[in-house]
Design brief:
Blueprint: H1 9-28, H2 43-56, E1 61-65, E2 72-78, E3 87-93, E4 113-114, E5 117-119, H3 127-143, E6 151-156, H4 167-173, E7 181-186, E8 191-196, E9 202-212, E10 214-223, E11 227-228, H5 237-249, H6 259-272, H7 283-288, H8 294-298, E12 304-312, E13 318-319, E14 322-331, H9 336-347, E15 351-359, E16 362-363, H10 369-381, E17 385-392, H11 398-401, E18 407-410, H12 422-425, E19 432-434, H13 435-450
Helix pairs in contact: 1-3, 1-13, 3-13, 10-13
Length: 452
């Protein structure tokens, strides 16, 4: 059955007209996630505001706190024309990483609209998509639009700390909220990458996230005999740990091309003339010719293990009994067991390791009706565009939803200026999103949902 409301000019303009103000208002909620339940703030207030926007449009919403006070989540469902089809989940997180105001050109929680951008923490990660979701959801309800299938809109807490008090808690304790959902769309996909062609022209790729590396935060611990700092110590926990951390932090893991990365590189090669030979010792050098996006793509070619925290000792003249480190590990799909074996060899038998957080990798194929709908939506608004799959080096709430058997994609459409260093804005200073990219993305998202 065809969707209704598709050809209404007023319905289309309603969401586009309000998306910038919605995103700006969302940014003004300081939802900084410190990783500490006691100091993380703002999610409840922001979630309650989102719920009011949905209820004002006619939705019945459900507000859920995911295992701890203030960790607010909001759900709303829009019935579709064919209830026998699996529902589509659209999910966005309300929390953001902290920001230091002194480092910014504008206050990070001002939501300033200036110079053609909306500025502030969360502008691209991911209150842009939250605003687009909210604008289209409100538009559909107010205008009486009936999508082809049920749509579940989820506005979530705690993604920036791995989702323990957000998506993972909800999947474990409230799976009923996802009843009937078979596919999901979330963040870090759908944005454009402009690739130069050999004939002097350009091609805009729109990167659809079909895979994510595994995410693991690992604690390393060395134990030895404590003693006086003036004595000879062959058995020193700090020395043992430091050597293990240095070996791990400087190690290069083997090159692995997943299906998603191989398809992406093949598409880039076809359009740009660049050749990515997996056997070449300088494949990263070729990748660097793509500019700033190479940092995102390059990190998907191999596992990484980056030391991020060290802790040892309590006085300058005391050899401590224990020394600890934390390592941020990102693992290519299918590599977890091999990765752990390699880590154990590097750190040696005198260093213990344990997972603080361990979230699986994820990968799906770049095919099917939903992928076709994404491609058609992009082409309807950018005939020179091309959708391609790619792997995210980080992680999203998709890792939780995959445990329910939901097929997950990243598709938050934005048409970006070629000169914008988009990768640097994630968790960066002066995070911002172009106003016209928001308006473009809202139109694309509407088209996509009307044909999903």
């Amino acid at each position: 059955m065809a969707a209704t409301g598709e050809n209404s000019g007023s319905a289309r303009s309603r969401a586009v007209a309000e998306v910038v103000e919605l995103v700006s208002t969302l940014i003004r909620f300081d939802t900084s996630n410190t990783g500490d339940l006691a100091t993380t703030k703002g999610e409840r207030e922001c979630a309650e505001w989102v719920a009011r926007q949905l209820e004002d449009a006619g939705y019945t919403t459900e507000y859920v706190e995911s295992g701890a006070p203030g960790r607010g989540n909001v759900f709303a469902r829009l019935p579709g024309a064919d209830p026998s089809r699996g529902a589509l989940l659209l999910h966005g997180h309300l929390d953001v990483v902290p920001a230091q105001a002194a480092d910014w050109s504008v206050h990070p929680f001002s939501g300033a609209v200036q110079d053609g951008y909306v500025w502030g923490r969360g502008a691209i990660d991911m209150k842009d998509m939250v605003g687009m979701m909210l604008a289209v959801a409100r538009q559909f309800k107010i205008e009486g639009t009936v999508p082809p299938r049920d749509l579940v809109f989820a506005f979530l807490a705690d993604e920036e700390n791995g989702g323990k008090w957000g998506s993972h808690w909800l999947v474990e304790h409230r799976p009923d909220l996802f009843e009937g959902v078979t596919e999901a769309v979330g963040e870090v996909g759908g944005f454009s990458l402009t690739v130069p062609r050999p004939d002097g022209g350009e091609r805009r790729f729109y990167l659809v996230e079909t895979a994510e590396k595994g995410l693991g935060w690992m604690r390393l611990r060395a134990k030895a005999r404590a003693g006086h700092g003036s004595f000879l110590h062959e058995d020193n926990a700090v020395t043992i740990l430091a050597a293990a951390v240095a070996r791990l932090g400087t190690h290069t893991f083997p090159l692995v091309l997943s299906d998603s990365v191989a398809e992406f590189l093949a598409a880039v090669s076809e359009e740009s003339g660049l050749e990515f030979d997996p056997g070449s010792p300088d494949i990263e050098g070729t990748l660097a010719k793509m500019g700033s996006i190479s940092r995102i793509i390059g990190a998907t070619l191999r596992d990484t293990a980056n030391p991020t925290m060290l802790n040892a000792g309590y006085k300058a003249n005391v050899i401590p009994q224990t020394a600890e480190a934390v390592v941020d590990c990102r693992v290519v799909p299918g590599r977890q067991a091999a990765f752990e074996r390699e880590v154990d060899e590097l750190i040696g038998p005198d260093v213990e390791r344990e997972w603080i957080t361990k979230l699986d990798s994820y990968e799906t194929t770049f095919d099917g009706h939903l992928v076709d709908a994404m491609n058609d939506a992009i082409l309807a608004h950018d005939p020179q565009g091309r959708t391609v799959p790619y792997m995210l080096s980080g992680g999203t709430d998709a890792k939780a939803f995959a445990h329910l058997g939901i097929r997950c994609f990243g598709f938050a459409p934005l048409r970006l200026p070629p000169e914008l260093d988009f990768a640097a804005l994630f968790h960066g200073v002066d995070e911002r999103v172009p106003v016209d990219a928001l308006e473009f993305g809202t139109e694309v998202l509407e088209h996509f949902l009307l044909h999903s």
